[in-house]
Write a structure and sequence with these properties.
Blueprint lengths: L8 H5 L18 H28 L17 E4 L10 E10 L5 E7 L4 E5 L3 E5 L3
Antiparallel strand pairs: 1-2, 1-5, 2-3, 3-4
Organism: Merluccius polli
InterPro entries: DUF5641
Protein name: DUF5641 domain-containing protein
Length: about 130
């Protein structure tokens, strides 16, 4: 949160918001294309780290378990958070089954993705679209 400048797609595409290149391990013997590729990869990594640290928690706003909030329901479209996956490759899926605790609160769900079905805790999901 110490960064005062908002990260935008222009940072990744043009690399021209600041006259100075981002700090990195760029070697002087690199040709222009390789250096530019490394800069874009570095900026993409920065964007992904900031997105997961600053924006993702806003999508996952949850009240304490003792405060009622909307439960996930079958048909909801969700983003499956996976910190071990490469940047930009998180899966989307549709909830097919919910698993509630003794208080009626959904704690886990079964999510159907493009390739298979997964069981995930709701703390690893971001609601993208509510079921109709």
């Amino acid at each position: 949160m110490n960064d005062l400048e908002a990260l935008t797609p222009q940072h990744l595409l043009l690399l021209k918001t600041q006259p100075n290149l981002p700090p990195g391990l760029f070697q002087t013997d690199d040709n222009y294309a390789r250096r530019k590729w490394r800069q874009v990869q570095y900026m993409s990594d920065l964007f992904w780290k900031r997105w997961t640290r600053e924006y993702l928690p806003l999508l996952q706003k949850r009240q304490k378990w003792n405060h009622p909030s909307r439960n996930f329901i079958p048909g909801d479209v969700v983003l499956i958070v996976d910190e071990s996956a490469p940047r930009g490759s998180w899966l989307m899926g549709r909830i097919v089954k919910t698993m509630e605790d003794e208080h009626g609160m959904v704690r886990k769900v079964r999510v159907k993705t493009k390739t298979n079905e997964l069981e995930r805790p709701i703390t690893k999901l971001c609601l993208l679209q509510e079921a109709a």
